[in-house]
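Render this sequence as a predicted structure.
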Amino acid sequence: MTIRATEQLKRDHRALRDLFSEYLSTRGHELQLLREIRTRLELHSQLEEELFYPALAEVERGLERVQAAQRDHREVRELLDELSLLKPDDEAFDRTMRQLIQVVEAHVALEESALFPVARDDLGTGRLDEMGEEMELRRLTTPRPPVPPARGSEHHP
């Protein structure tokens, strides 16, 4: 059974919130968490930018909201690039990670309160279901970086 596009995106949002909570509550696994956050954000953004946003931009109430969401995506990419140049013990790492969390949380709020209702009302459930099928296919076929070892399983010779 296909999961509607907006439901898949909400599921991604929940997974990101869980990763952010884990980052804020633990120490010692920052790079592993950053890799997982980056991987999830990149796939999520790709699905939105290639499937969801173009469809939403076609409706009158969608274009301005999509443009705001795309600005958020650019800011997220910039922060991820910044983080890739830092080490967890760098002073700027935690500050930049917290800024990333803030930007993503605001973006999620925008999507769930402003974009998803417009998508439901103006695109309709049939179109969202079709997008959901395409998203599922892309999730299965998009190459992903290797999964880092589970925490606690790192081997130190």
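Summary. Residues 147-157 have pLDDT under 50 and may be disordered. The chain is about 80% helix and 0% strand.
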